[in-house]
Amino acid sequence: MANIASARKRARQDALRNAHNSSLRSRLRTAIKSVRKAIATGDKPAAAKSLQAAQGVIDRIADKKIVHKNAAARYKSRLAAAIKSMA
């Protein structure tokens, strides 16, 4: 455990930041799963609608640098391609 006051404060801040970032990352994964679930059911309009909602979540989390912007772009691209390839 840290002995210096500034190090103790930094540890407290890191714990709070970690909890906040973890919840945002969880929200990202949930949004991606909802799109994949809609794709799996085969309902293209529902999948497109859930992708629309997920893109906002993905972009907001990338703006906060929870995930890299290129990773966010990759998620969106692959989900869009999966929807586009549906029959």
From TrEMBL:
TM helices/strands, residue ranges: none
InterPro entries given for it?
A: Ribosomal_bS20 (IPR002583), Ribosomal_bS20_sf (IPR036510)
The Gene Ontology biological process terms listed for this entry are: translation
Q: Which N-terminal stretch is annotated as signal sequence? A: none
Is rRNA-binding set as a keyword in this record? yes
**Pfam families for this protein:** Ribosomal_S20p
Query: Which Gene Ontology molecular function entries are recorded, alphabetically?
Result: small ribosomal subunit rRNA binding; structural constituent of ribosome
Its Gene Ontology cellular component terms are: cytosol; small ribosomal subunit
Report keywords, A-Z: Ribonucleoprotein, Ribosomal protein, RNA-binding, rRNA-binding
**Superkingdom of origin organism:** Bacteria
Keyword RNA-binding in the entry? The reply is: yes
Q: Where is this region: Disordered?
A: 1-25
Identify its protein family: Belongs to the bacterial ribosomal protein bS20 family.
Primary role: Binds directly to 16S ribosomal RNA.
Q: What PANTHER family would the database entry show? A: 30S RIBOSOMAL PROTEIN S20, SMALL RIBOSOMAL SUBUNIT PROTEIN BS20C
Q: What's this protein's name? A: Small ribosomal subunit protein bS20
Q: Which organism is it from?
A: Zeimonas arvi
- Species lineage, top-down? Bacteria, Pseudomonadati, Pseudomonadota, Betaproteobacteria, Burkholderiales
